[in-house]
Every structure is written in structure tokens, then in C-alpha cells.
Amino acid sequence: MSKPQKFKTLRGFRDFPPEDLQRREYLFSVFRSAAERFGYREYDGPPLEALELYTDKSGDEIVDQLYAFTDKGGREVALRPEMTPSLARILADRSRSLPKPIRWFSIPQLFRYERTQKGRLREHFQWNVDLVGEDAIDADAEILAVALTALRDLGLGPDRIRARISDRRLLAALLGAKGLDPETHEGAYRIIDKVEREGRDRAVERFGTELGVAESLAGEILELLELSDPAELRSLAPDASPLEEAIVEVEALLEVARDLGFGEYLSFDLTIVRGLAYYTGPVFEIFDRAGEYRAICGGGRYDSLLERVGGEALPAVGFGMGDVVVGELLDELDLLPDLEPRVDYFIVSITGEERALGRRIAASLRARGHSVALPLRDGSVGKQFKAAASEGAAQVIILGPDEVGRGEGVIRSMADGREETVALDTLTGEE
Ligand code: HAM
What is the pTM of this model? Predict the structure, then answer.
């Protein structure tokens, strides 16, 4: 007989055995709790969408990474690489009948054919929180606060992480003030987006070769991007200029986010551009302070996407936070709680004769909402206690011939060994 073929997960995909799933569920519960405390409601959509939903809305980087194919009906489809286009599509159908603003969140599994590396897989779960129908800066600050609330709840304080905040309008106004044509701005964003990874010299070179920007001007622009206070850009901004307006907007965002309790996390950082094509205003990314990991989270304002998928023209702002980077960071800092298996009761039968009674007690306790594990065959008392421990039983119900003869059982706490005698009728629910 030929050796059976062994199968592994595909590269960049994960299995979730119970302990990993429990860890994932822990993250999700923190995400849900944060979103719900701000009044957001959970939604979902299908994992497979029409290919065109992404091809001109998401930006080249994501489109290159699509899992796309032709289905059996000849339709071009793609596994969702991000949730925002789906959200826009869902709302295009429904937003008119919904009170504004719309506060929705979701935790979809997403698929991108990425080069796998630390923090980047080919599938991940991404907590998406979006606020639609409000263009006041308080909406942007609220979205930032939801993300930071969850990270704070996970134990990541301002000593560990920081939110880097920029604004595409501010960047455009700045490039404009420096004499760069609007047509070159997309190209400039692409270069700026990579400054951190590729270095300043490479950026200057790219400004020259790709956009025809002189070395000295490129150097000046890159220097401005290093400023950490938006007010420092004022000298370049005449009153009522687009740059002045954009500065006021970012300052307001920082101030409102400070009021919401997250001042210590914030830094103004014009090198944050975001790879996706649809952002129109403030954008942000959250990173670990040491700078060892990829972005934990990214988001921003996208005021024209809903209209572009045929919906009501509604302003929107939101973010996506993956489960991968934050999981790696929590692991490294030992911030994940011990998530042991747990049942309320394990039923030990001393002679084996009491197993039928044990089954009746288990049935009754489960009907009353308790979790109960039972030995499935006769075994020594020692073995049964071992099983109780590995099931994570909080209490063991011991059924021995003498006690059962008296109509009683013993409940032992696994934490402190304390025992209590109880009437069997209480356990079987027949009192
Ligand atoms: P994004 O920056 O592409 O934004 O992804 C957001 C976050 O998802 C990243 O910061 C990272 O934590 C995680 N992530 C992305 N790709 C991967 C991957 N291959 N493996 C592991 N984690 C990953 C968006 O997707 C926007 N749609 C977010 C958004 C929502 N903007 C407005 N609303």
C-alpha cells in the first residue's frame, strides 16, 4: 500500500485547535465589548464578493493580493481582502432607511495573497469599526478612541503603543504649498508611505526619478514630514488657505481624542499615508512603541466610497484591527490570560456501579445550565480524578456506595479540597 499523503494547512493559513480558538475568542470578546460600550452594533456579510467591488476601490496593493477566480456561472469573484467595500455595498442598499450616524462593527475573516512574514498571513480576522453619516471631527476621534479602548483593555498602555495620526488633506495641502501638482500627489503618497522602510535617501531619489522633483525640494518636503506638531506648519499656511484649514482639523482631532482620554497615545506623524485608495481625510495607524511589529491597526476617513458604490453620499470613518499583530504583541508581553479548559462538574463513580446515577445527575445539571463531564467507561478512582483535573473541573461530585446508600453524594472543590455532603435529590433535581 502506498503511504497516505499528509496534508498541512496552506502557507499563511492557520488551524485553530481549542486553545488557539479560545485565545481568538478572548480577543474578539474584548473587541466586542469596546465597540458595544460606544454604541456600535455587529453586522456581517458574505466572504465572497464580485471582483469589481475591489478592482477600482481598494488600491493596487490589495488588488494584486486578491484571491480571485471565475465561478461556475462565469462570474468574476474574489474572497474579501477587506471589509470596507462590503460595508459600503451593504449600506448602499440600506442607509436611506437608517437613522444617522450609523455605528457598525464586524469581525470578518479576510484573505490576501501576501508574502507571509511576521505579522502578515494570507488569512486573518479583522475587527472593523465604522461610523457612517457624520463628518464632524468628533467622529474621527471617536473611532480612534474605540480602537484604543480595546487595546488598553488588552493591557497595552501608552508605554507600549502609540497612535500615529496624519491627514491626507493636510498632506495634499502641504504638497500643494510646496508647488507639487495635484496629479503628482498619489505618486508622492506612495513614496512617503515607504519612507520609513526604504529610508530618506531612497525617497529623495524616487521623488526625482518618479515625479521629477528636485533633490533640494524633496529634502525640504521630507523634513516637514518629520514635524511632530501640526502648529509648526503654520508658517507655510496663509490664513484661510487649504493648509491652514487642514491644520485646524488635525489639531481639533488631537484635542477631542485627548478629551476622550487617549492623549498619551497620540502622535502627529505625516509619514502615515495608508495604502488604500479611498481615504480622503484624517488617517491613523497604531504601532508598538518599540517599532518591532507591523501596524496593529489602521483606519481613517473615506467620504466618497459609499457614493462610488452607488449609495447615498455619506461621509464615513473607520478602522480595521487584525488579530495577528496584536496576538503576537500580547504573546511577547505575556498579556494573554491563562485560558484553561473548564467545566463546572466532573462526576466520579467509586465502584462503577454509580455511573447510571451519575448520568442522571449530569443530565439534570446540564438541563439547569451547568457544564458537566463524565467518565465514559469504568476506571480507577485515581484515573477519574486525573480526568477531572484535565477537564478543568471546578468541582467533583463523588458517588460512593455508602453515601449513595444513604441518599447522598459528596461535592469536592478542586481549588481547596473542601467537601460538602448533598442530598442526591438535589443533584438529580428530583427534590
Ligand atoms: P488595512 O491597513 O489594510 O486596512 O488593514 C488593517 C489591519 O489589518 C492592519 O493594520 C493589520 O493589523 C491587519 N492586516 C491587514 N493585512 C493583514 C495580513 N495579511 N495578515 C495579518 N493582518 C493583516 C483595511 O483593511 C481597511 N479596510 C480598514 C478600514 C476600515 N478603514 C476604514 N474602515
Answer: 0.93
